[in-house]
Amino acid sequence: MNPASTMKLVTTFAAMELLGPTYTWKTEVWADGPITNGILDGSLIIRGRGDPKLNLENLWLLARHVRDRGVREVRGDLLLDRSPFEPITFDPGAFDNDPTRPYNVGPDALLANLKVVRFTFVPDAATGRAAVIPEPRLAQMDVAASVRLSGEPCGGDWEDRLRTDFQYIIGGVRVAFGGSYPAACGEKTWNASLLSANAYFEGLFRALWTELGGTLQGRVRDGTVPSGARLVFTHESPPLTEVVRDVNKFSNNVMARQVFLTIGLERSGQPASTKLSTDAINAWLAERKLELPDLVLDNGSGLSRAERITAAGMGRLLQAIYASSVMPEIMSSLPIVALDGTMRRRFRDEQLAGQAHIKTGTLSDVRAIAGYVFAASGRRYAVVFMVNGASASQSRAAQDALLRWVYGL
After folding, report:
1. Tell me, what's the pLDDT at 299?
2. Domains by residue range for the chain, with CATH
3. pLDDT value at position 311?
4. Deepest of 25, 140, 161, 169, by most Cβ within 10 A of its Cβ?
């Protein structure tokens, strides 16, 4: 069956055992030219290896450390070296024809801030409008300052009442919001991916570099570290354990894809590809004698129409996780029923609250859960539930009934 995002359990378990809980991604900064009195007479090169956590804060730290090492002005170009990943032709609209959705961002060896812009809407009753605040602020993006307020109640469909208008221009995009924003919503955020990987990286890096007092004279382009270049700084990501927590708690598809490709990169020593990662995970399963004969891997995130696993196979995987030395890390990465992650709104004010760690999976025609229930009897049970088909969205009551029943065992 299609497991949707419960497939992340396969990817994160494999990563924890093959890479280790303390694995970190390293992003290198190189200088191609002499540095004299703060001036780099040449290009600055940033070489990525797929860090899923190279977010706004960490990219700022990277830039600050480069400044601290004596680079103030770059007279050459900024080269982006993505060579640890095989070149990827990726269509962000292929899955559901919605290329601006953050979950449709493609994998990237030099993925900056998940390539997402967060728009915060701040209502002001005095003006009758809500200010629109983008983060990060990018020179390549022109954003309309506000949107009209309405007196409608705030519901789960507040985003649908906004009419988005994206006008792409050379090197950037103009963003405007029509429709209305319910004042009753207070402050809310809306995320979108609107720029190419290079345009986004350039806008973010230039903004941070300028804030730190640096200048960049050249352009931003793809490249590789040339022979003779000097290593200036290596940024180290948070450990894999922290990344796995983000992947599973919040079902982050983009980060899962980065983890999936990293497995192939590190196990083969060759540029990452889907095939290398699939081969590495299948070899690991065979070595472990963990039989998942119907397993089909595509991108490791579950955001796929092709990925497959049986319910029994997922159950065996959960049992293997429980018997593994990395069980505490995997268990703690799963959403806690009624408390956090994708399960935070379910089973509130019930005895089951806080007594189960459950990974969810949702596609238009898929509903799935997989995880562990700590039953009232004091025993812990592995639980798997999968529905595929047009009526999958109607299965939540059955999911809930199963979890309550297992808790009562």
Report:
1. 97
2. 4-21+240-407 (3.40.710.10), 26-96+196-236 (3.50.80.20), 117-192 (no CATH)
3. 97
4. 25
